[in-house]
Write a structure and sequence with these properties.
This protein is an all-alpha fold and 123 residues long. It has one domain. The chain is built from 4 helices and no strands. The longest helix has 27 residues. The radius of gyration is 17 Å and the shape is globular.
């Protein structure tokens, strides 16, 4: 919640950097495009699931799906822009994608635990 209101106070946080003006405008636009693509795919995914009468299996699944789509579109963007893994971290989004993979794995474990708990009483 603090990071949501931080730009209003003039403090910008660009993961993994906290100092101002670390990212150039091309990187900012690239990250916004990745977020936009992942958001649209997440909404399309859950719209399709809704029309197929399938509800989310846990409360974590929307965040899990969004993070997986962000990883997917982030990797595609890095491959299209020919970004090396060994570049300076300020020029590369691979560090962010690695953190998202770790975050997504944690969410997946929570999701499988919640799914088992929800459907224990059905059998």
């Amino acid at each position: 919640m603090l990071l949501a209101i931080a730009p209003v106070l003039g403090f910008n946080f660009y993961f993994p950097f906290v100092v101002p003006d670390v990212l150039d405008s091309a990187q900012q636009i690239e990250r916004l495009l990745i977020l936009r693509s992942a958001s649209f795919m997440t909404s399309a995914y859950f719209t399709l699931r809704y029309f197929l009468n399938r509800k989310p299996l846990s409360s974590v699944s929307p965040i899990l799906v969004l993070s997986n789509f962000m990883i997917f579109f982030g990797v595609i963007s890095n491959l299209q822009n020919d970004v090396s893994i060994f570049e300076d971290p300020s020029k590369s989004n691979w560090v962010v994608l690695l953190v998202l993979v770790i975050f997504s794995y944690g969410l997946f474990r929570i999701h499988t635990k919640d799914t088992k708990k929800i459907f224990d009483k059905d059998w």
